[in-house]
Structures are given as C-alpha cells and as structure tokens.
Specification:
Layout (H helix, E strand, L loop, with lengths): L1 H32 L35 H69 L2 E2 L3 H9 L4 H22 L2 E15 L2 E14 L2 E18 L2 E9 L1
Antiparallel strand pairs: 1-2, 2-3, 3-4, 4-5
Length: about 240
C-alpha cells in the first residue's frame, strides 16, 4: 500500500510539471503569434499598432491660425483685382495719350491762330507800305534823278535794291537826261494777293503820266504791277517788282 501511495504522488508531481511546461509553451506560442513576422527584434522594429507617447512642451503647442472667410474672399478676388489693375493701367495710358494729343492739337491751333493773326496784321501793314512805295519807286524827273533814285532805294531791300541801282544808273538815267523825261506815278487801287507774317504779295493798278521830248504833250499809261513786300528790321520793304 505504501508503495502504491508513493507512486501516486510521484505520478501527480510529474503530471503537474508536464502541465506547467505545456502552459508555458502555449503562452510562448501565443506571444509569438502577436509579433510582426521577420527576423527583427523588438529593439530593431516596433510592433504594429504600437503607440508612442510624446510629452507636450511646457508652453503648449502653437496651433496655426485658422483661415478667415476674408482670406478666401481675397484669394478669390485676386484675379479680378489683377484684371482691374490692368484695366486701370490701360485707361491711364489711353488718357495720357489723349491728353498729349490734345495738348499738341491745342499748341498747333494756337500757333496757327497766332500765325493767322500775324498774317492779318501783315496784310494791312504791307499793303499800306506798297501804296507808299509805288509812287516813289516808279517816278522820276530828269532834273533831279540822283535825289529821286536815292529816295526810291530807301523803300527797297535785298537783291532788288542792287538791281534797281544798276538799272537806273545804266539805262533810266541816261535816257531821262537825254530826252528830258519825267514820269509821275499814282496808285489807283491795290489789293493783297497772298500774305504770310513776313512776306506779302500786292497787286497794284498804277497810272503813269509821262512827258519827254519824244512824246508830244503827256502820255498816260495804265499799268498793273505786282509788288513783293518783305518784313525787315526797318519795316516793310519792296523786294521785287514785276510789270504785268
């Protein structure tokens, strides 16, 4: 009986050891079943689903500001603002060009107006000077030719003055002295043909009464004369005379 009891105890102890080893093996298998596949250890690769805790800084996290509705409106309005700026720049450029063109037009019109006023003044001044000059330039008396020619040259200017001097000295003076020629010119009417501020052309109808030993009595000639008047520092002078 005693031996039977001893065997029973030994059998129970062996059974308990066997169960404990089996439980440990099952626990190990269960633990291995929850690990990631592969040869990596826990230190080399974290397990799936593992949570890592990070402590917050002492002053808390700085959260970025939430965008306001105005920011979205400004982003949406940016293309329209750019288009508006382009239109304003275009409008400014167009208005600038129009302003410059307007100033140029005003300047041109102002210049034309001033030139027109000067031309109008020139018409009257030159016409009056031509009416005064014609009787002196177209008249002479053989008894005092030098005096008459000198007075006539006072109304002349430019190359015409030199031509007049030569013609009177070589042609008119010898003929007038030889035949006792006297010519008296008067202006019947005169009008302006063209005018600019510094140059005016005048058409004159001149009556010339001629006396000489070659003509019995007196002869009256009705002549048309085109006289060019030029503005000089001494006033309006005759720069050309053409008989028509």
């Amino acid at each position: 009986m005693a031996k039977t009891t001893t065997r029973g105890r030994g059998s129970g102890s062996s059974t308990r050891h066997t169960m404990t080893a089996a439980a440990r093996a099952a626990a190990k298998r269960a633990e291995r079943g929850h690990r990631e596949p592969g040869p990596a250890t826990d230190e080399e690769a974290p397990l799936a689903g593992r949570t890592v805790l990070v402590e917050a800084p002492g002053d808390g996290w700085d959260d970025p500001p939430e965008p306001s509705p105005e920011a979205f409106e400004e982003e949406g309005d940016a293309p329209r603002e750019r288009g508006g700026r382009r239109r304003r720049r275009l409008f400014t450029a167009v208005m600038g060009a129009l302003l410059v063109a307007g100033l140029v037009a005003v300047a041109v019109l102002g210049w034309q107006y001033r030139e027109g006023r000067r031309a109008d003044d020139a018409r009257g001044e030159a016409l009056a000077a031509a009416r005064r000059a014609a009787p002196v330039v177209l008249s002479y008396d053989y008894q005092h030719l030098d005096r008459d020619f000198a007075r006539a040259r006072g109304h002349l200017t430019g190359t015409f003055r030199d031509e007049y001097r030569k013609t009177t000295a070589t042609v008119v003076a010898p003929t007038a002295a030889k035949y006792h020629g006297v010519v008296k010119a008067t202006v019947a009417t005169a009008s302006v043909v063209s005018a600019s501020p510094d140059r005016v052309t005048v058409l004159l109808f001149v009556n010339q009464v001629t006396r000489s030993t070659q003509v019995p009595g007196s002869r009256v000639d009705l002549n048309r004369v085109r006289m060019t008047m030029t503005r000089t520092s001494e006033g309006w002078k005759v720069s050309a005379v053409d008989a028509l």
